[in-house]
Amino acid sequence: MRALTFKGFLTQYVKELSKANTLSLKTLAREAETDNYRLVAPLVLYALATEKSASLLRSLGDSAAADEMRRVIQAFNEAGAERLLSSGKAPGEYMKVWDAFMVAKNAPERDKALKEAIRKKVLQMMQNGNCTNYRIYTDLKLNPGNVNSWLKNGDSSKVSYRNAERIMHYVMQQ
């Protein structure tokens, strides 16, 4: 699985925030200027990351939001958007977008650590009770190889976080 990039994150994020579910800069600029102010910061960062800031500037009208976007695009172009964001010196609403990216980027490592903690808890409860790997994957209708690989070898890529929680709840009930 490829690592999440800031550009990839922004592409998905802007599309999700858009009421039109689009990446058309003209549509997004109109939407950000009029009624979707949550879209302003991600849109500016998206335009910078995809090197479409000139196109966005052409799409903007003459509103206060447009003036703000022009000013921020100029400031980010001079300082370098990702460098400014990673230093923590960007305006608050832009830092929120960066923080959301960092949470999404670090999700696999966080999930891996949580699954390992769940695995240790499950193994401890299995030693204390009458629960076997066979009962777990049979009753929960999970893939036997994946469950065994996760429980015996600690391969966290074999189960999802959701299934790890299901296994833990099952073992707790036994």
Q: What this model shows, in words?
A:
- The protein has 174 residues and is mostly helical.
- Helices cover 74% and strands 0% of the residues.
- The chain starts with 5 loop residues before the first helix and ends with a helix.
CA radius of gyration is 23 Å
Compute the number of strand runs. Answer: 0
Largest β sheet strand count, sense and barrel closure: none
The number of helical elements comes to: 10
Features:
2 domains, 174 residues, mainly alpha, single chain
Write the layout of secondary structure elements.
Blueprint: H1 6-17, H2 25-34, H3 40-49, H4 53-59, H5 64-79, H6 81-87, H7 92-128, H8 133-139, H9 144-153, H10 161-173
Helix pairs in contact: 1-3, 3-4, 3-5, 7-10, 8-9
Task: Provide a compact summary of the structure.
With 174 residues, this protein is an all-alpha fold.
